[in-house]
Design goal:
Layout (H helix, E strand, L loop, with lengths): L4 H6 L7 E4 L3 E5 L9 E5 L11 H8 L2 H10 L6 E5 L15 E6 L21 H13 L4
Antiparallel strand pairs: 1-2, 2-3, 3-5, 4-5
Organism: Trichococcus palustris
Protein name: Histidine triad (Hit) protein
GO molecular function: catalytic activity
Length: 144
């Protein structure tokens, strides 16, 4: 895709702070640095979101997550945890429409200033029948 910033980074057309690269993916520091070391893992093949992955690309991209996560963890004795996020479509806060995975090192509780992952639980809101219908619909749509 010609106007995709992540394609341009993957093709080395614009500068980036690369932390890892191979024939399938490129990982680089996010300009926003939500926390120090905030890294993005991007497939070199342009896919807009998880819904465009085939099984092989998913295997290739997602199998690299532990390697990148361990490298980030080992990069600083101050890292206490790590969020790994993948947003898909604008309703889910995807802002660049080339699939990417965020790695957000966590250093302390105050990291949540300006960044949070808290959601309200709806436990007990849905009946057993409603949940059974959700399960059936998902199972019916699984691909082999």
């Amino acid at each position: 895709m010609t106007d995709c910033i992540f394609c341009k980074i993957a093709n080395h057309e614009i500068p980036s702070n690369i932390v890892y690269e191979d024939d399938v993916v490129i990982a680089f520091l996010d300009l926003s640095q939500v926390t120090k070391g905030h890294t993005l893992l991007v497939p070199k093949k342009h896919v807009a979101d998880i819904f465009e992955y085939d099984e092989e690309l998913a295997k290739d991209v997602f199998s690299r997550i532990p390697k990148i996560a361990r490298a980030i963890e080992r990069s600083s004795d101050d890292i206490l945890g790590l969020n790994i996020l993948n947003n898909n479509r604008s309703i889910a806060y995807q802002s660049v429409f080339h699939s990417h995975i965020h790695f957000l090192p966590r250093y302390e509780d105050s990291d949540s200033d300006g960044f949070g992952l808290k959601w309200k639980t709806h436990e007990g809101k849905y009946s057993t029948a409603e949940l059974a219908a959700v399960i059936a619909a998902i199972k019916e749509n699984l691909e082999d």
